Structure formats: C-alpha cells, structure tokens
Amino acid sequence: MEGNGIVLQEGEQYEPCWLRYEKVEGYYQNLSLFSNIVVKGASPVFHSAVEELSRGISSILGIQPKVVKSVEKSGFILLGTIDDEEVKHRFSSLREFRQMNKEGYTIQSISFNGELSIYLVGKTDKGVLYAVFHFLRLLQMKKDIDHLSIFENPKNQLRMINHWDNMDGSIERGYAGRSIFFKDYQFIKNGNRIKDYARLLSSVGINGVVINNVNVHEAETKLITEEFLSDVAKIADIFRAYGIQTFLSINYASPIQIGGLSTADPLDSSVQQWWKSTVERIYQHIPDFGGFLVKADSEFRPGPFTYNRNHAEGANMLAKALQPFGGIVIWRCFVYNCQQDWRDRSTDRAKAAYDHFKPLDGQFHNNVVLQIKNGPMDFQVREPVSPLFGAMPKTNQMMEFQITQEYTGQQKHLCYLIPQWKEVLEFDTYAKGKGSQVKKVVDGSLYDYQYSGIAAVSNIGDDPNWTGHTLAQANLYGYGRLAWNPDLSAEEITNEWVLLTFGDDPEVVEQVSQMLLDSWRIYENYTAPLGVGWMVNPGHHYGPNVDGYEYSPWGTYHYADRYGIGVDRTVRTGTGFTAQYFPENAEMYESIESCPDELLLFFHHVPYTHRLKSGETVIQHIYNTHFEGVEQAKQLRERWKRLKGKIDEKRYRDVLERLNIQVEHAKEWRDVINTYFYRKSGIGDKYNRTIYK
Amino acid sequence: MEGNGIVLQEGEQYEPCWLRYEKVEGYYQNLSLFSNIVVKGASPVFHSAVEELSRGISSILGIQPKVVKSVEKSGFILLGTIDDEEVKHRFSSLREFRQMNKEGYTIQSISFNGELSIYLVGKTDKGVLYAVFHFLRLLQMKKDIDHLSIFENPKNQLRMINHWDNMDGSIERGYAGRSIFFKDYQFIKNGNRIKDYARLLSSVGINGVVINNVNVHEAETKLITEEFLSDVAKIADIFRAYGIQTFLSINYASPIQIGGLSTADPLDSSVQQWWKSTVERIYQHIPDFGGFLVKADSEFRPGPFTYNRNHAEGANMLAKALQPFGGIVIWRCFVYNCQQDWRDRSTDRAKAAYDHFKPLDGQFHNNVVLQIKNGPMDFQVREPVSPLFGAMPKTNQMMEFQITQEYTGQQKHLCYLIPQWKEVLEFDTYAKGKGSQVKKVVDGSLYDYQYSGIAAVSNIGDDPNWTGHTLAQANLYGYGRLAWNPDLSAEEITNEWVLLTFGDDPEVVEQVSQMLLDSWRIYENYTAPLGVGWMVNPGHHYGPNVDGYEYSPWGTYHYADRYGIGVDRTVRTGTGFTAQYFPENAEMYESIESCPDELLLFFHHVPYTHRLKSGETVIQHIYNTHFEGVEQAKQLRERWKRLKGKIDEKRYRDVLERLNIQVEHAKEWRDVINTYFYRKSGIGDKYNRTIYK
C-alpha cells in the first residue's frame, strides 16, 4: 500500500485514490495558521469537516492542529457558516456572498499584521465541508493560499451516484470487485470503507447516493421493510455526515410482493395507502431520506403499464407519498421494447424514450424527476444526445451517465469519459433557440425546473484500487467535478486529478493527462465505427462481435450487407428518429451532408464507398481507424512505460498490466472488425496492411 | 401419470418410458404357462430377471405368476443358464447355442402335448435378464410366442452410457432437469429412480455406466476417495443387479489435488504407486468396478502433456494399476487446440484427433480403449466420420455418440438420431478394403480388438419424462438397441419403440415413426447447411448465430465472405484433412465432383453460385432447405395433432408444446440464416419467398 492519506482499517487494504494527502515539503513557509482550527458550529457534517481538515493538515504539512472555538489573535483557519456573526460582519457586503446557494461556499484569505488567516465558510455546514475539501485540494496542488477569494456554488442541484449493487454482493455491470454495501444478502457490518467512500464522493461534491440496483430483485425489494431499514439508516448516517442523501431503488410491484396486495395499480387506493405507510416508515428511520429511483416497465421490470396506467400516473402515486417528507421520485426513461423482432425495420429503439415520455409533459408532479440516459440507446462509445433533453419544458429532467465502463472497455481498457460527457453537456438542443445546451437543461436553468441535475452509475467495487483500472478512478473524480460544474474543461479536471493522484512531476502530469484525454477516441477508433455501436458479445458486452446483436430482440442493429452499413433514421426514407430533435439538429442529422462523420452510421445507411468529410471512404475509414487505434493503444502503453520509477511500483505495474491487456484486445477488435467488413465488402485496404481473409 | 409399468415411489412422479407393460387383452389365449416361472439359478441379476418377469406378466396379462425351482409338467417359463443340466440336455446340440458369448441368450418355445413352455436361457445370468426383457418386449408388441427360437449375442462388447453429471446436481449439456445421482455435492440417498433407470438401460442391453462428467471438477475428483467410495459402491450395487458395470471419470491431476503429491507425471513412481493404491481401494469397495474414463489434455483438462508424456504413457500408467482387477482405461480422443487463432488458416481442428493418436498405434496397453467421437469435430448435425476409425489396427477403439442433443435442438426440437448413427456405423472406412465399415471397427471384428464397443452421452435427467422431450426417449432406446446390434435398421428400432411407448394403433405407429425418421433431416434443413456446422450461439449452443464461432478460439469456422463459403480441407489447396482417410474416401472427399452434397462445405470452399449435384446453386439450396425445413417442422406438428385422443392427454400436450416451440424456433433459424446469406451474397431467392433484408 502506497500513500498515507487514508488510515487503513484492520484487514482492509485499499487505496486513498485522490485523497492521498501526500506530504508537501518546503512549499508553504508560513505554517502557523495551520496550528489553529477555529470551528464555529456543530453537526455531524461540521465534525466531518474538522476531522478531514485535521487529517489533511497533519498528513500534508506534518502539523497537528488544535481545534478551538475561538482565538484571540489572527493566524487560523476558521470553519463557519454565514450565520456566524463574525463571518457575517466580515463578508456580508460581498455580492457573491449573498448569492451563495444552500450548498455554496467561499474560501477567503485575510492578512492582518502579516498574519494570514483562512476562512472556510459555507451557507450551511455542507458548504463548510466542501470548502475544506477544496482547500485541501489547493494544498495538495501547491497553490498559493495567500490571496484566496473563491466563491463556489454547485451548478447542479442533484449530483448523484447510482449503484447497481445487489444484495448477494454482486454488482450488475461492475468491473471492480464486489459490493461495498452488501454481502450474502446482508449489509456489510463494518462501515469503514463506506465512510471512506463517502469522503471520496463528498470531496468532489456528490450529494446523493442510490445504494441498490435499479433492477430490484426479490431480496432488495425488502430494503423498504423493517427487516432492513435500520441497516439502511446506518448507511444513511454515514453518508449524511458527508452531505450525501441516501436513496433506494424500488420494485414497482412491492405492494404485491411484500405488501400482500393483489395489485400494484397506482390508482388503487389500497396501493396508494400501502406506499404512504411504507414511506412514513422509511422516514421514521431516515428523516432526510432522499427518495426512490424507479426502473419501471423496462427490460421485464414491473410498472404501471400492467394496469393500463401511464408513467405519469405511475410516478405521481409515489411522489404523493414522498411529498410530505420532501422526498422525490427519480423515474428512469430507459423504456423500450426489448422483445423487438429484428426483421421489423419500422420499430426504432432510439425513438422509444421520446415517444413514451414527451406526450406526458406537464403531467408529472413537481417532485418527480425524469432520469434520461445521455444517448437514445444505451451508453455506447458514441451516440447522439437523447432528443428528450429540452423537449419537456414542464417536467423536471436529469441526466444519467455511466461511469462504469460497460460498453467502453470494462475497466480493462483505458477510456476516460470526461471528454464524452463534456460533449454531451455542451450539446446545443436549440430547445429555446441557440444556447440551449444540455447542461442548461439539466442544471434546471433553461426551464426553471424544481429538481434537476446529473446521476451516474458507479464504477467502484471492493477492489483494492476501487475501480479495477487505477486510471478509472479519474472517471469517478471527473464525474463529480463535472456534476458540480459542467463548465469546467476536461483539461482542468484531468490536471487536478493527476496532480492529486500522482503528484506534480511534469513528465507524469503530461503523460498521464495525455493518456486520459486521448483514450476515449482511441477506444472508439478500434471498436465500433462511425456511431454504429453494439458490435459486442451479447450478455457481458465485452469484446468484438459484429453480428452479436444483429439478429437479437434488443433493437440494436447495424444492417451491414455486402453493399453498405448503417441505420437509416431519417424522416425521408428511414425510421423518422431525426424528427425528435429541434429543427436545427433535426436538419443536421437528416442530411447526409451535414451529419457529422462520427455519427454517420447512427443516422444513415450508406455504401461502403460513401465518402466521408475526411475524404476517405467509409470502408477505408474503418480500416484506418482500426489499424490506427491499435497503434494508439500501444502508444498509451509506451507513454506509461516512460513513467517507470516516477510512480510507485504497485500502481505502475497494475496499470501496465491493464495496458498490456488493452493492446492485445485492441488487436482482436481490429482484426475481427476489419475481416468482417473485408469479407462483406470485398474491398481491400488501400495501404495493403494485413487484413485476415 | 399415465401407464402402469413402473411402481411410483413416494413423491416421485416419472414416466416408465418403454417399460410401460400396458395390459394386452384378448391376444394371448394360452395363459397357463405364465403362471409358473421356473428359476434355475440365484444371483442379484437372476433376482432382477425374476422380478421383472413377474412384474411384466402381472401387468401385461393380469396374472400373478408363481416362482418355483422346478415343476413336474410342461407349461412354464424357465429361466436358466447353459450350466443348468436340463437346459444343456435340451439345447446343446444346437450350433447357435454353443456360439453364445458371455452376454448371449436364447429364447425357445417348446410345445409338449399341447402345453407350451418358454425357455429364457443365458450363457450367464446377464443373458437371462436380457432374455426376459426381450420376451416382455415380444409380449408387449403382441408377437406370436408359440414358435420362438431366438438366439442373440450382443455385437458390441462395451455398450456404455456416459453421464456428464456434476456433483452439484447440474448436468453439462443436460436438457432434462437435474442429475438423478447427485445433489448439492452429495449422492442422492433414495435409489429408487436409479434402479428404474438401470431397468431402462438393461432392457436395451446397456452394460456400463460412467456416472460423472468427463470434466472432473474439484468435488468429483474426490469420488475415488474414502469420502465417497461407499456411495459409489451403493450405486454400483444397483447397476450390478441389472448387468451394468460402474465406471468413473477421473481427474488426471488427482495425485496432486487429492494425493498431496507435487506431480501427476505418469512416469513418476510415486504417482504410479498412488494410482495403484487408489485402484486397490476402489476394488475393495466395488469388486467389479469397470474402470476409468479419462478426458486428458483437452479443453483445459490436465493430462500427461504437462510432463512431456504422450497419451499412451498417460493411459498406460492407469491401465497398469487397473489390470490386476480386470479394469480398463477408456481414453478420449477429443483432443485439440481450443485456443486456436481464428486468423490461422493452417491449423485444422478436424485433423487433431488423428494427428494426436494415429502415431501412437501399438503403444497402448491392451486394457486401454480409445473413445472416439463419431465425427472429427463435435457432434454436429452433420459431419463426416472421424478418419481415426480403422486407422489404428493395434489399438482398441470404441465409438462415442451423443444422445443428449447439444447441437441438435436440445430436446426442444425433435431430432431422432438413430438414422445419423446408422450412417456412421455403416460408413465404409476401407481400412482393410471394401467392407471395413465403422461398425466392424468398433465391434472389434476388423482388427480383433480385446476391448471395443460404443459409448454415448446420456440425455436423461430428473424430469418426469426423463428426457425433456418425450419423443427423445426414442434416442436412448434406439442407442441401446443399436449398440447391441448395429445391423438393426432404423425402421425396426423405431417400430419397436413406438409400439412399446404408444401402443399399436396403426395411425399412431405410422405418424410417430414417420416423425422420428424424418426429424434429423428436417433439423438439418433449417439449421447449418451442407455440413458446415457451428452456426449456433456460443456457450449454450442453442439457436442460430452464423458468426457465433467465426472469430473464436475454438477452431470452428465457415469462412463465409461475399463470394462463397466453406472450409477447404483438401490436400491440393486446403488443410490436407482429406488425406487422413483411406484412399477411397480421401479421393471421394478431395474431389468437389465426388464429395457428397451434404458434406460439401465441410470439405470445400465454394462460391455461392456453385452448382450442387441436385442442380441447385449453393445459395439457392440454402434458401430452399431453410424454407422447406420450416414447412416440414410444421408438418411434424400436423402429424402429431392427428393423434389427439389416441395418446394420453399428458404426453400429447407435452409433445405438442415442444413442437410449437420447434416451429417458432425453426422460423428464427430460417430467417437468420437466409438473411445472413442474402446480405452477404446479394443473391435473391429465385422463388421470391420472403427473405428479410
């Protein structure tokens, strides 16, 4: 075990990730202010803030600070909220101070007679905790702290992590070990790791966690019963101290399965009453319970359709039960026909979410939020943005990303997703004319939503490095930072993470940053080309299989024949999906001339000889990117090898091992894809590189 | 539960299969002989014979016979061996009587003063039991018994069933429920069903059973230890009473895994000693233990290769340990490189068994038998015969068939395999010139093998009807009959089974027989065409997936591109596999003109426009057979529907349900295969039937 930030618990060996708090030597000269932490408040969150700050200071600077209620003279770090008189007196004249939202904070350096003091001030105690993490980040990155005047408000209200953890301890689409919450259908008793996880999440501003899988099986259905609520409450206690609300995924058929009712019809009064009582019971255990995440009428999960009710009726019933307590319903829009006939060319899975939900705009209660996956399909390496974003002015919407790399290399391949998410968030929907970016939809500003934000599916498990691939920690870090502030650039976020995780050796910073920033495009290069997607082995979704989903019921096809490939989703000759976008985007995608190359096969069926904007034909593009992708994967490995000796041996070897796998599997991707298309098209590579016949 | 043959045990509900012993009314006039069973011998097998005969007579004729040691006057059924003085006196002048082999028997009707007596005489008690089953078969089929003079010797010495049962209760490639031997890593205590299974096997002449999977996992490795040997012995007791020897599959790495040794090297004396002691211990528990079945150095199983020893060295070491007790080693030849690179066109899995074993001819001990799968690949719906048959004059060989329908519809589809096996057994290897059929290799007559015969992988489980698909019972029945006498025609066997299982209504006999006899060709029609094979979903092997194994490491490819399809296995331009056959067959397969249509793509890569002997092109043949195959599957269902009311409702519905599934899944096969090849070839159906684009 390298690093010295996290105190390891007995028997547990895991990495501190970006909370390493490595010793910073010889940089900060004026150390006296670190000796006194003045705490102007008391609460579990305050306690966490003080504990974290003490831990950080002692680890980074070797000073054990005193924690006091007040001091006589300057030279201290003060933690307090805006309610504190001294704080109010000092800062209330500042405009930004008055504009702090309930999770906002400020960090201010005040010099008096040459004595520096730092004020870490939140609107509430949560802001104080965020300020502490921010301040410690600055220390670790060796930033000048003499002239700080920082104001931060999170841009998104809901900044959530969804766990797809099952009570048997498995994690659906998990690639980093087993659950840290559950084992053998029980809660894991030792909460140490959960606390350290809460610290990691809180340090990047996450404020909500759903602890169980959206696919709620028999065991997890009982999480809302007395059998397990006290266990859930213990986890909620841990998270609460880090400003994180706990949510549960629920089974829509709970009234039948655990309630003894014969129906789960949302308009049935006994069902309504059952949920009302259930919610009351939950809030008796967890007074600040967040609410429910619901996957209904999707992939064989039960839902209101069984009773001829629509999604609004289904969600509103739960919303009413939660409303008195301030809880919310997060209702997933991942609803489509997963028993499609591959022979049926008229049904288009991409259209499903919009078709299901758009007509219901205005019918959802204001404590319901629709959670929409970034793309219309399912977390492919490349998809267009879901046309549902911005299409429902009167319905709260939030984004769902996937940190766990289901379709993007399963944490064996390096695939840093921040650049992808940035593209999604910056995408202009034109919902209210130019400048209606997705980020403005999900931060609630475009339509003034009551609830909105971003959720993402966790990539962590009980592996010692949390994420399987050590560099995949960057996706969790970056997700949190982006959820806090979507305006941050991928480069800024990357730079922070590398500095915090590997230190400030310039060669390390340069190489690791470049590896991360290049990796998504590289993965795209050697996998599914031009936005077509789904060329993976069915079920586990790892490795190339061009026809793997081609004759399946999942609505996921590429229609490659001997002449061409791609899905015609145009209005003129195809499924009409393009019409779901606002006109500017609809026109862009509808026209083969204006459709971006990287999404060409998502929207159009073209001959292999079709010329891209790059000037290459589609078939030559496929060959080029697949040959190049492998070379780029090798370059990733070469970059990493340059860092030998500059990174602790354990992490160096762990990453190298994954990069070796990546190179080998990239070759498999290259050769399968190239051979498949060579066999089908009969067209050779114009550069005569090796394509197996 | 219909039928009245098998006494059902408490809580257990399962069918009697072909041992129904339905009441035969008004056919047999002279019933007095059935009142007296004269038993001239005593042994567990004799006991079984008497019990079965009594049960059969009372059920078929409603008479409860007396069992006596002798009678004064004629009019009886006598059970005895050739050692009996009266028997010897009466029959020893007959040439056939003297030619009985140790499992042979005779059935003789003797009329004296108008009083009929029947002699059921075996060379040993096993023959007596076989004679009883034969006689009961005749009664059930309403055969004339007044003038019987039947002599039977089994043609094959080893007539075995291999179970791929695991101790957790699962069955590898099982499609009829869980194991009847094992549950939760223990032996199932209640032996009733095993006894009834022994009756079924014995009734068709099976004389050996391997009770555990050839893939021997951790748990089953311990079957040869004191922990489990007394359980194995109990099963052996049950089987022994029905003339069946018990065998075990062993783990070649046992000396390491349970013996505490550091090696399993067959030339290491401590290893040899360990096996010697182990075998001694087994025989203390089971004095007539059959021996070991070994899957070594195949599909990740351990074997002698680890120690740079060859298969002969590996097998002989075990053979030496077994020899003193009369046990044998059955060594599987299913050895190939399962980590092949699909890009590598020079390696040909079809060649592997011959390449591995042929050079070792003469090096195996005479109590080793090589068990060779019928084809060079793996139980596909259509393969050529393995060229290894007949290629090793100095090495015992036996056949391995697969009754369980891994690649032939998994007991959801009707696929009666007797016609396939008949083709294999009748195939002329030309090993010693014309007339060197496979059946003469495996019955030991061609080269005078010390041990030889046929084994097959069981299709039974704990389903109430034993085999999932009721009509799949016919495959087990037919296998036994064919192993006893490969000269029986498919029609004879089929007729027997239908009469025994469904009675003698002429419509039932005609329709069911025709369904069975047509079914293999029908399944072939709508699945993989022209011998190419492997167009199935990987792993579970059910349903169409043309490219499912195309880019895999398993050596199973079809090489379809936009111009053509097939594997070139010729000497002239391909892998050279054809040279493994004796010249007459090698020439037949080498030449595209003489290669039979149904194996064309196994041996040759041809354009889709290649004209078959039928006059159709390959592509049109693919379309024709796939359209026809579905129509034929529908006809199977129509035939069955005509039998409503003529077959008990339970079995009628069970079969109909499977036939409905078959029709639906046949359509899926048809459409996937046709679309795949249409997309690839660009050639339409000349009859303009629907092919989805």
TrEMBL record, chains A, B:
What is one Gene Ontology biological process annotated in the Swiss-Prot or TrEMBL record?
Answer: glucuronoxylan catabolic process
Which Pfam families does the entry mention? Glyco_hydro_67C, Glyco_hydro_67M, Glyco_hydro_67N
The active site of this protein is located at 299, 378, 406
Domain named Glycosyl hydrolase family 67 catalytic is located at 139-466
**Gene3D superfamilies reported in the protein's UniProt record:** Alpha-glucuronidase, C-terminal domain, Chitobiase/beta-hexosaminidase domain 2-like, Glycosidases
**Keywords of this protein's UniProt record, alphabetized?**
Carbohydrate metabolism, Glycosidase, Hydrolase, Polysaccharide degradation, Xylan degradation
Cited InterPro entries: A-glucoronidase_C_sf (IPR037054), GH (IPR017853), Glyco_hydro_67_aGlcAse (IPR011395), Glyco_hydro_67_aGlcAse_N (IPR005154), Glyco_hydro_67_C (IPR011099), Glyco_hydro_67_cat (IPR011100), Hex-like_dom2 (IPR029018)
* Domain (Alpha glucuronidase N-terminal) ranges: 17-135
What does it catalyze?
Hydrolysis of (1->2)-alpha-D-(4-O-methyl)glucuronosyl links in the main chain of hardwood xylans
Tell me which domain of life the UniProt entry assigns to the organism this sequence originates from. Answer: Bacteria
What GO cellular component term, any one, is given?
extracellular region
**Annotated ranges, domain Glycosyl hydrolase family 67 C-terminal:** 467-689
Q: Which GO terms describe its molecular function?
A: alpha-glucuronidase activity; xylan alpha-1,2-glucuronosidase activity
Please state the Enzyme Commission number of this protein. 3.2.1.131
Question: Which top class of enzyme applies to this chain?
Answer: hydrolase
Which family does the UniProt entry place this protein in? Belongs to the glycosyl hydrolase 67 family.
Q: How does it assemble?
A: Homodimer.
Name of this chain's protein: Xylan alpha-1,2-glucuronidase
State the organism named in the record. Parageobacillus caldoxylosilyticus NBRC 107762
